[in-house]
Structure formats: structure tokens, C-alpha cells
Amino acid sequence: MGTGLTESTSRLRADARRNREQIIAAAREMFLEQGTNASLEEIARRAGVGIATLYRRFPERHTLVQQVALENMALVGAELDRATAEHQDAWNALAQVIRRLVDLRVGAFMPVLALDLEEDMRSEGGVLKTRRDQLLARMEQLVRTAQQEGQLRQAITPIDIMLGIIKLSRPLPVIGAELNARLIEQQLELFLGSLHAVALDASEPLRRQRLTLDELDRYLETAE
Amino acid sequence: MGTGLTESTSRLRADARRNREQIIAAAREMFLEQGTNASLEEIARRAGVGIATLYRRFPERHTLVQQVALENMALVGAELDRATAEHQDAWNALAQVIRRLVDLRVGAFMPVLALDLEEDMRSEGGVLKTRRDQLLARMEQLVRTAQQEGQLRQAITPIDIMLGIIKLSRPLPVIGAELNARLIEQQLELFLGSLHAVALDASEPLRRQRLTLDELDRYLETAE
Amino acid sequence: MGTGLTESTSRLRADARRNREQIIAAAREMFLEQGTNASLEEIARRAGVGIATLYRRFPERHTLVQQVALENMALVGAELDRATAEHQDAWNALAQVIRRLVDLRVGAFMPVLALDLEEDMRSEGGVLKTRRDQLLARMEQLVRTAQQEGQLRQAITPIDIMLGIIKLSRPLPVIGAELNARLIEQQLELFLGSLHAVALDASEPLRRQRLTLDELDRYLETAE
Amino acid sequence: MGTGLTESTSRLRADARRNREQIIAAAREMFLEQGTNASLEEIARRAGVGIATLYRRFPERHTLVQQVALENMALVGAELDRATAEHQDAWNALAQVIRRLVDLRVGAFMPVLALDLEEDMRSEGGVLKTRRDQLLARMEQLVRTAQQEGQLRQAITPIDIMLGIIKLSRPLPVIGAELNARLIEQQLELFLGSLHAVALDASEPLRRQRLTLDELDRYLETAE
DNA sequence: TATGAATGAGGATTCATTCAT
DNA sequence: CATGAATGAATCCTCATTCAT
Fold this sequence. Notes:
The structure is a homotetramer.
Chain A: H1 5-10, H2 14-34, H3 40-47, H4 51-57, H5 61-86, H6 90-103, H7 117-122, H8 127-149, H9 158-169, H10 176-195, H11 213-223
Helix pairs in contact in A: 2-3, 2-5, 5-6, 5-8, 6-8, 6-9, 6-10
The structure holds a DNA duplex.
Organism (chains A, B, C, D): Pseudonocardia kunmingensis
InterPro entries (chains A, B, C, D): Homeodomain-like_sf (IPR009057), HTH-type_TetR-like_transc_reg (IPR050109), HTH_TetR (IPR001647), Tet_transcr_reg_TetR-rel_C_sf (IPR036271)
DNA-binding region (chains A, B, C, D): 39-58
């Protein structure tokens, strides 16, 4: 319920808060395009603020990455609530949450794994770690239930799921956010299929739009 | 057969050839550790040559990446031969080839996708493109056959497979080559499972060693 | 008496005066540790006020340096009174004043020399210059008398004395205030000896604690 | 004799060596004017080379400071030889060496004391430390002998001498090299006087040109 | 009046890339 | 051919200083 970092935020001056939000928005974009090593100066430029303003809010690159991740996690938390409310069975709830985590690219903001404890533990009471562990705990719960339901393959571990999310989320360099989005969508259902335990009919279609080679080429040409 | 870049190579002086090989070996290492944006100067250093020597052989970073990829592809070509020779059924041959491509991290050297046509077409007669298309053609053949066999899900396209290979191959930054190897291995069988059409028993184990959270943490601690 | 800056000070609101004093205290500390180029923001932080508050009181770094020096000078003025009251002979009075000036590090706050006339003349009626000239005048008086007494070497000028004080007072960077204090003490008596005219017995001890190499090393190790 | 760093230098390409020398010359100037934290970019500019060239030769600021100090020390070593050859008595030899050390501003290049062991020990086999210790050893020898001769005050330690040299050598900021030179000269003889054990006649003049207040003011005005 | 916010400028440092030997 | 030298451009980061609340 909105504790922690988010609170201190609400005491900012109006203009400062707007700046903060613009920076985070720009950062999310850039990180998704170029990875978390994207140029901070470029982020500031896109956000329409001076570089020093960015540094005032986020003294280290790490802090900025964290905040973006945190905001995403908050969203995911809400989605978890919704997914469990909307779905009777654990498998469908789990699948929906995975889709959300991938859509928000949460994994893209955890370069040294979602499991990179080191930095997080130090920083401000480990808020990020705490949040992530809450998510993980709920996910583990879903995993176990889904396996009891017989819908999730027994061999799957939460690590598999986090890793899959991270690998899916990481953007390929150079090709731009749009194509990356298309590619991620392309692979997502495949990944979900690899988790699902139900007997697959060889001919069963994937729940997605098919990406053709032609379409791919068209993206690459415009990206150039 | 054997056209293109490889040929000109054989006309190099003995020492020049040795240099070339050392550079490529060093580059492969560095690219796997740090991605294809790794410092060229550092590559030259590891190879034991001057930076200018590297530039003489590989006038652009792109050229170097290509060469590493090419060498890998040659190996994969051979593996394709072997796989089809060794396996009666297309599915098992395909699976073996995918394993090889991932093991060699071919995808890691295709930052702008294996499908990045643009640069390749310009460069020296598009050797890379040609080679890749040969591989793709053979792979498409396998895909179709495996689907006729009823072993490969109908919905799968060659693009899915290439994308999967690329995403699997890309190393996560910072955590080192060793842990990356472990993680890739971890996900590989999962990916193969997502392709396979056979009815899965929910309890069927994956063909792999399970990575535990503890083990993961141990890696991260030493990496630090 | 009591003209200039000091007066306007007394008209400040109570809290404003407290702020002013805290800033000056923090500034003295920082200047002694890091020189007069120390970060103003850090000074404000130590003083517990906002940076803008500091700027309101001291629109330029120069002003702040001046004020610290001025406060010190006031103290020294009082010491001059006391020294001449307590000592019959000019030499001992002079020596005591020099000790006080060094102890208060007056010289450390005169980066462009106590003799830097330029800035001072412009600033608020040259208060600093006036005060300093008063001190210098009294010191010159002492110098002349001490020379007539035959206790101070004839060749010595007030400039020598001011210079000596300044050079002694300036802290060496990086090594911290404590070791600097020790080193200054170490050299002070040596300096006084260089002024004194009395025939020195080669074996006469200096009035000070001897600093050994070992002790010095210990300081440096902890400072690290 | 000429071992260590100096040698590797001689294998540089002709133009590279010239650059190196220009950088060191510019650095010496700047360090004397502004201290060892002077802007490296400005040094490169004055030396007429690009900033990266400076970094190639001197990867850390520390290295550059060291080299300047080393070159000075080599000169001082030679002077030590000459001083002991030219002077029968230890006192006069010692005094001459002190004058040389101050003239070359050796102390100005030892911000954390000539005794700053830490950094030096790490760097390239501690060449600087070795050199300095050689000088110190010879100086200690002179100190002892001069005390036995009855010319040097018993209470004086080598630390006193090094400290004096350092404090004398450190330039006052802002006022430029020329005035600093004048001021140092002004105080040098005073310092030597503080060491000497002979009975001083109160009226004995110092061996130096007297600096008047008027002259000082003239310097400051032009410096502005 | 007191404050935090915002900003630009300047310095450090690293690389890709071209040149001279 | 092989090399090391030189360079500029880009980024990170810190401060002094001014503005808006």
C-alpha cells in the first residue's frame, strides 16, 4: 500500500515531481531500447531536463534502474491480485502474470538477474529486494498449486520462470523498441507452451499472430 | 563450396594467419563475456597484437563479429551433416542442431539478428548472408519434415527457432561466462520442450540438471 | 570600535543569527580540512541549512572566507591586548601573538595572502583590510620595540612574520586536520627560533614535543 | 644510475618522447601555479597535445605527479654529490641541498607529505619511494655530521627539514608562479637561520633581497 | 526569510579510429 | 606487415550559482 520510496516522492514540489516522472518515462524507453547502460545524458535530454537534475534525483545509475523496476513491480502486484481474482485455476492466473511481467519488461531492469542481491541489499533497506521477494513468494505459491492441479509441468521451478521472463524481456540491441516488442510477443506464447503440461496436439495453433520473414525484413529496412 | 572470405585467408603469411586466429579466439571470448560491444583494444591485447593489426584484418567491428559467426557456422554446417546422418527422424536431427547452435552461441554474434540483412548484403558479396541462408534452408527442410512426422508442433516457424537460439545465446551482462553457460543450459531443454509436439506427461522430467536457488546464489557471490 | 559587518549582524533575527554562526563554524572546519575551495554545498549541509541560505548570507565564497577571517582577527585583537598586558618585553608579547595567529589558522583564510588587497578594498568598505592593517600596525610596533630590545633579529620585517604565519597555517591536503595540527605545532617553534636574536646554544632544545617518524607513519596509516 | 623508469623512456619514438617532455614541462608549471590538482586538460592544452595522449603516457594523475617529482629528485641527487664535493663541512653541504630542493619545489609534488608511503609503494616497484629514501638517508647522514660539527642545532630532525621544505615549496594559490617564487626566496633564508646553531648577532643581515610592501603590492596589481 | 530545484559548465576518463614509423 | 602514437568525441559526474516556491 504505497509505502517506502513512493511516499517520499509525494512530498516533492509539483514541478519536481513532473520532472521525476519524465525522467523515469524517458529512462524506461531508453533502457528498453539500449539496455540499462544507456547514456544518462541522453535520458536527461529526452526528459527535457538538465543532466544535473537527473543526478539530483538519482545519484547513481543503479538508483534509476531500481525506480523503474519498482514502479513496474507495483503494477505487477496489482495484476497478481487481479489475476487470482479473475481466474479459478492457478495455471491461468500464473500465465496471466507472466504475460504482464513480460509486457512491462520487468526482466529488462534486472541486468544481473532478478536475483542480483548484492546491490539491492545495500540500497535503502533493500526495498527492491523486498518487493521482488513478495512477488516471487506469490509466484511460488501459484507454481505449486498449478502443479497440483496437473496443469504445470512438474519439472518447472520458479527460477525457470524468472529466467525465461528475463531472457524474453531483454531487448536486442540496435533494432529499436517496436521490432523488439514484436519479437517478444512472438516468443512469449512459445515459452508459455513449454511450461504447460497438457497434451499438445501437434497441430494446435499458438495464441499469437504469426511473424513472417517478409514482415521482419520490412521492420529492419525502416529501422535502418 | 569454400568460396568467399575463407579463401583469401589461406593466402596469408604464416604469422599473419596465426595473428588472425588469435584475434578471433580472443574476440569470441570477449564477445561472450561482454557482448559484441566489447573493447577492441582489449581484444587486441588478449590476442597479443597491436590494435592497428586488428584493424588491418578487420576494418570494422562488424567484420570481426561476422568472422566469428562465420567460423561458427562452418562448424554448424558440419554438425548438420552429422545430425542428419546419425538420426533417422527429422525431429531428433533438428534438436541436435539447435543444441549445437546454442552451444556455440551463434546467436550471440548476431546482435542485429541472424536476420539482419542490411549490413550483410553490402559486405563482401554477402558471404554471411549466403551461409546463413544455406543453414536456414536446411533447417526449414528439417522443420517441414519433422512436422510431417508429427513430432514438431505445426505452429512453429524457422523464425521461432532462430529467435529462440538468439535469445538463449545472448549472455547476461556482468555475471561472467560461467554462470551464463549454466543458465543457458538450464533454459535450453525448456525451449526444446516448447517445440516438441508429443503429449507431455505433467510429471515428465526435463533432460537437464536442475539449478537450485542456492547454487545460483553461490555463483553470484563469487562473481562479485 | 565594533564598526562594519559585525554590527549589521546584531540586527538579525535570532534564528538567522544562529544560522549564520553555524555556517561560519562549519566553514572554518571545512576550510581547515580541505582548503578554502571546499564545497559550499557540503558546508551548508554540515551547518544544517539549505544552500540558498548560505548564499543569502554570503553571496560569494570570498565573503564567507572573509567573515571567518574577521572573526578570528577579532579574537587576535583581544589576544594582542592581553599579550602586551601580560608581558613586559615586546619579544615575548610578539611571540605569543604569533602563536595565537597560527593556532587560529588565520593565515589559512587568506589564500591570496593576508596581503591580497584587491578584493578586500572593493568589498564593503574594506573592513577586512582595515582590521588587518590595525593588526599589522600593532605588530610593526612590537617588531620595532623587540628589535630595540635586541631580542628580535634586525633583518626581520613584518612581511616575514605574516608570510611565516600564512605558510605555517595552510593545511596540507588529504591528511586531515589532526595531523595537520601536529605538523604545524612541530614547525612553529622552529619558526620562532628563526626570529629570535639570542645566541643559541647548539644543544638547546626546542619548546615542543618531538614528532617521530613512527608517529608520523601511524597518522598516515589511519588517515588512509 | 639512470635505471628504472627513465630507461623505458629512451625507447620511445622521437615524437613521442618530445610530447612526453612537453607534458612534463607543462605539468610542472601548472602544479606550481595551482597545486597538484590542476586540470589535466589544461596541462594537455599547454603541452600542445590531445588529452588522450596525456592519458596514454600517464594513466593516472598520480603517475604524472610522480614523474615530475622523479625528474626533480634526479637533479637533486646530482646536487648532493656536488654539494658534498664542494663543501668540507656538513652544514654548508646540507644548506646547499636544502636550497636546491626548495628551488626545484620538490616538496610541491608530495601533497600527502614527502612521506606519503601508500601510493608510492604500490606503483611500479616504489621507484619514487626508493629514490626519496636514498635522498633521505644521505640527508640524515649530513644532519648527524653537522650536529657533531656543532653547526646544526641538536633539536633538529630530518622530519623538520622535510616539512620545512614542503611548506616552503607549496605555492600559494591564485597569485602566480612569479610572486610565489619571490615569497619562497624570502622565507628560505629565514628557515635556514632557524636550523643553524651559531650564535646570531641580532643585527646580522639575512642573505637575501628584502621584499618591501610596495613591491608586494606591485606584484598583486599586475597579477590581477 | 528559508528552502530545495534546476541548470550549465568543466573536469576526468575511456574508446574507436586514423597516422606515422 | 606490424606496431604504437595521437586524436577527438562521448560519457560520467560534481559544483557553483541562480530561481521559484
